[in-house]
Amino acid sequence: MALSKKPVTGMRDILPAEMQVRDYVIGVIKETYAKFGFTSMETPCVENIENLTNKQGGENEKLIFKILKRGEKLTAAFQDGVEAGLADGGLRYDLTVPLVRYYSNHANELPSPFKALQIGNVWRADRPQKGRYRQFMQCDIDILGEPTNLAEIELILATTTTLGKLGFKGFQIRINDRRILKAMAAYSGFPEEAYDQVFIILDKMDKIGADGVAEELVESGFSKESADRYMALFAGLEQAQDGIAYLTETLEGVMEPEVSANLQEIIAGVGAVKCSDFELVFDPTLVRGMSYYTGTIFEIAMPELGISCGGGGRYDKMVGRFTGNDVPACGFSIGFERIILILMEKGFTVPNLQKEAYLIEKGLPTDRLCEVIAQAQRERESGVQVLVARMNKNKKFQKEQLAAQGYTEIQEFYTNPLQ
Predict the structure, then answer these.
(1) Could you tell me whether strands 46-48 and 87-91 are parallel, antiparallel, or unpaired per DSSP bridges?
(2) E strands, 236-382, where?
(3) Which of these, 116, 249, 334, 343, has the minimum number of CB atoms within 10 Å of its CB?
(4) pLDDT at position 62, please?
(5) Residues 166-174: what's their mean pLDDT?
(6) Which spans in 38-107 are helix H?
(7) What H or E segment, with its residue span, contains residue 119?
(8) Residue 10 above 70 pLDDT?
(9) Which residues of 246-285 are buried (b: 16+ CB within 10 A; e: fewer)?
(10) Domain range summary for the chain, segments of one domain joined by +
């Protein structure tokens, strides 16, 4: 039987045209983030299964590609008959868990604060659909060891600067704080152990509306009184000129004053740059799925396209799960695959890329061939991308293909110089 030429379900091959755009985008990302002091690092694609199933990855923990034990260990695990003992590793589902393990292992060798840039593939056993694959690239920047809002401000500015260099304008950075979410839930009378369930329902606000959220809260077993009080907060926010000030006053006694002060400082710090390419918006319905977030959370929203293209937040308790000592940490992830998809759909081409092709007729004398190769090398050294190839019999079709690949100049070299 013939071997399968198609990728595994949920995976995909990437053709040269897209790969050129991806390489360019990665270059812009690395160059821009480097100017903000972020340094590249890398972690293995496989992590210990205990690290991946520590109940901080939310729904992603249900999507782990697990790796079976090998040899005698696997045989023994089968004999035990306990399914949970069959795997000892798994493919990483994000870059945050590996980063925190990496930092915990190398903290004495790293600067403080540590500003990390990590770009790499992650894997989730998700349902494949347009723009969503089981293997995809993530691009994260994180700052570990910085307890103040300087971390959030730097992360937002670095990310928005990068998006601007890629041609994105008119997008939003939606910002909230998990402590605000918890204070709103406490004020409304929801039990603390049910906060995550409440937040999952709240996260559907943009799809089912306020009435839908209230209805689902009651259907989930919460009292109508709590649901009504909760929704009244959001109704008040719609009327308030300053949402943060409104919540500070309304939630007095259940929310620490520093929470709103921190949020206002971040908004002021980012606003001081006076960049018109994006808008920073306080959104009290923003939840983010990961349960490891402890404070500020943010998300890139593109209202024109109706999608989000990344997000992040503060996770001050995660390093402590590895070392026993908490370290302040905050990160922002660009939705790399969605950005590439948008650029490809817009017909994006790599700017300032000069591409030339040299077509050589079969039988060209050696001395002339050497001259052509030397000429191509000189052009390459000056920054031009030069393809040297044999001339096909169907030269017209070959030139059409080269033009489609972006080669703007095509030179032909014949055995007979008069051709």
Answers:
(1) antiparallel
(2) 278-282, 296-302, 307-314, 329-334, 355-360
(3) 249
(4) 84
(5) 92
(6) 49-52, 71-80, 96-106
(7) strand 114-123
(8) yes
(9) bbbebbeeebeeebbebbbbbbebbeeeeeeebebbbbbb
(10) 171-280, 355-413
* Phi, psi angle pair for 87, to nearest 5°: -115, 140
Contact 140, 158 (CB under 8 A): no
Per-residue tokens: 85: 């003992």
**What six digits make up the tokens of 296?**
């500020």
Q: Is the pLDDT of residue 164 over 80?
A: yes
- CA-to-CA distance for 244 and 179, rounded, in angstroms? 13
The mean per-residue pLDDT over the stretch 234-254 comes to: 91
Helices (H) and strands (E) in the chain, counts: 15, 14
The closest of 110, 100, 108 to 43, measured between CA atoms, is 100
Token representation of residue 404: 């489609």
Tokens of 222: 């919460």
Give the phi and the psi of residue 337 in degrees, each rounded to 5. Answer: -65, -40
315's CB contacts (< 8 A; 6+ apart) are 96, 100, 290, 292, 293, 294, 329, 330, 331
Question: Could you tell me which residue, 396 or 290, shows the higher pLDDT?
Answer: 396
* pLDDT value for 329: 97
Tokens of 285: 């319905």
pTM comes to 0.88
The first and second tokens of residue 197, run together, are 């369930």
Torsion, Cα 384 385 389 391, to 10 degrees, reads -70
Residue in the structure block whose two tokens are 């972006």 = 406
Contacts with 154 (C-beta within 8 Å, 6 or more apart), sequence order:
36, 115, 143
- Which contiguous run of DSSP H or E holds residue 342? helix 336-345
**pLDDT for the residue 132:** 79
Residue 358 has pLDDT above 70, yes or no: yes
Q: Report the sign of the C-alpha dihedral through residues 42, 45, 154, 157, in that order.
A: positive
Kindly report the backbone phi and psi dihedral angles of residue 407, in degrees, each rounded to the nearest multiple of 5, phi listed first.
-80, 110
Amino acid code (one letter) for 160: T
User: Tokens 């045989």 appear where?
Assistant: 75
CA distances from 395 to 87, 120, 292, 354, 355 (A): 56, 40, 59, 22, 18
Token output for 132: 């969503």
> Which value, in Å, is the radius of gyration of the alpha carbons in the chain?
27
Q: Which two structure tokens, joined as six digits, stand for 2?
A: 């013939």
- Is pLDDT at 276 greater than 70 in this prediction? no
pLDDT at 155 over 90: yes
Tokens representing 92? 């990483």
